[in-house]
Amino acid sequence: MQKVFYVLIRYKKIAIFCSITCIVLASTLLFLHEVQRADIQLLEHVQELVDRQKFIIHIPQGWEIEGESNCLQQSHYSISYINNQGVFRKIIYPYIHHDTKFCISKQIAVQWTLYHTITIATIGIVSIIFWILLYYVLTMFVYAQIWKYIVHIQRMCKGDFFDSSDTQIIKKLTYILNMYQSQNAIQKALQTEFASSFKQIHSDLHFYFEQKKIPDTWYREFKNLYELLDTTAQ
C-alpha cells in the first residue's frame, strides 16, 4: 500500500518522466537502426568497388576524393556528420588508381521518414493512454481499500466494544488521509467520493469522545483520525 501511495502522490512527475524516456529511447533506437542500415549500404558499395576495382579506369560515380592524409593508415572507416540537408554517414576507403594510393569517400543520408515520425507519435499516444489507465486502476485500488476501512469502522461504531483489529484499521485510514493531506487534487477526490461516509464517522467518533467510550490505550489513534476528519470531511 505504501508503494501505491508513493506512486500516486508523485504520479504526474513519474508519468511525464517515463513517457519522455520511452519517446527518447524509441527515437534513439530508430535512429541507430537507420545509421546501421546506412553503414550496411556503404559496405555493400565498398564490396562492389573492390570486386570491380581491376576493371575501373576512372573513380566510380558517387565516390569523391577524400583529403584526409591519415585515412591511408586504415582499411576503411565510417563517420557521421550533419549539414543543412540532414544527417549523413560517410565511408572513407583507401583506393589505388594507376599505382597512386589515395582515399575516396561515399556518403548516404540517414533516413528519417514519415513512418518514423508516426511510430514515435504512436508510442507517445500509447504511453499516455497507458499512464491514464494505470492511474485509474491505482485510484480504484486505493478507493477500494478506503471503502473497506470505512465499512469496518462504521460496523465498529455500531458495536459496544473495540478490539485490536479496530485499532489497526483506524491507523491505516489515518495513514491514508495523512498521506493525502497536502495533495489538494487527491484531497478533493476523497471528499467527493467519501464525504458523507467521513462525516458519519466523524459524527460517531465525536459521540464516543463525548460519552468517553474510547479506551485509554487507543485514545491517541482515535483522536488522530478524528482530527484528520475535521478537515477532510468538510
Please describe the topology of this protein.
Elements: H1 2-9, H2 11-52, E1 64-66, E2 77-83, E3 86-97, E4 100-109, H3 114-158, H4 164-179, H5 184-211, H6 219-232
Antiparallel strand pairs: 1-4, 2-3, 3-4
**How many distinct beta strands?**
4
Question: What is the SS-derived class?
Answer: alpha+beta
Summed up, the helix count is 6
Rg from alpha-carbon coordinates: 35 Å
Largest sheet: 4 strands, antiparallel
First-last Cα distance:
26 Å
Mean pLDDT: 78
What share of residues is helical?
55-70%
What portion of the residues fall into strands of 2 or more residues? 5-15%
- Identify the strand order in the major beta sheet: 1-4-3-2
How many domains, as an integer?
2
Using the alpha-carbon principal axes, give the shape. Answer: rod-shaped
Order of helices and strands: HHEEEEHHHH
Low-confidence stretches: none
